[in-house]
Design a protein that fits this description.
With 76 residues, the chain is mainly α. It is 80% helix and 0% strand. The chain has one domain.
């Protein structure tokens, strides 16, 4: 029984690794991640435009977050 569990675990881990490698080597992962980064950028710009004069502290925080985006490798 223990040997069968070990074989099953080995096969499951191997298949998971192959599936993850296939996902990361294709654009199936990078496209949604890029779209999500663009959405966050657009949302922050919209918040910055709608917060004219009322929320000075938030504007500074948005600018700070936008400055961090290139450091994290996020394409705009």
């Amino acid at each position: 029984m223990s040997m069968r569990d070990g074989i099953f675990t080995t096969v499951a881990v191997t298949l998971s690794g192959v599936a993850l490698a296939g996902l990361l080597c294709t654009d199936a992962y990078s496209r949604p991640a890029s779209l999500e980064a663009r959405g966050v950028h657009a949302l922050s710009l919209e918040m910055q435009m709608s917060c004219s004069g009322e929320c000075d502290g938030i504007d500074g925080r948005i600018v700070q977050l936008q400055a961090q985006l290139p450091e994290q490798g996020v394409a705009r």
